Amino acid sequence: MYTSDQKSAIYAFLATAMCCDGSADPREQSVLREAIAYFQISSYEQQHATDKNINLQAAVLKSMSMDQKITFGKYMKRIILADGYVERHEGFLFQKLMSDIGVNINSL
Q: Percentage helix, strand, coil, to 5, in the chain?
């Protein structure tokens, strides 16, 4: 079970990863919709995902259990790989965030 704050943070970073390369590819959007369903992210949580700054959002992710972090990391990885090309900013965001929250990217 994920808290409302966790869902908002998850959505904020997944949406950022999707748009990081300057476009929201339909394949990325599809993975994001799947993540919204999986994490049961409400429209309210989506709308308020950017109410907190990025450091607070990252702290929320860091406080999750390792299983929750890995599940989030797998969705983030799927989003950045969905369009078949990992743009430099996407790769940096993914590596930095996973490192900051304590997830080994090789485990994803």
A: 70, 0, 30
**What pLDDT, on a 0 to 100 scale, did the predictor assign at position 46?**
94
Residues of the chain with pLDDT under 70: none
Looking at residue 1, what DSSP letter applies? Answer: -
**Which token pair is 62?**
């860091």
56 close to 13: Cβ distance less than 8 angstroms: no
Contact assessment for residue 39 and residue 1, using Cβ atoms and an 8 Å cutoff: no
Report the alpha-carbon distance of residue 87 to residue 92 in Å, rounded: 9
Comparing CA positions, the residue from 76, 71, 96, 98 lying closest to residue 19 is 76
Q: Is the full-model pTM beyond 0.90?
A: yes
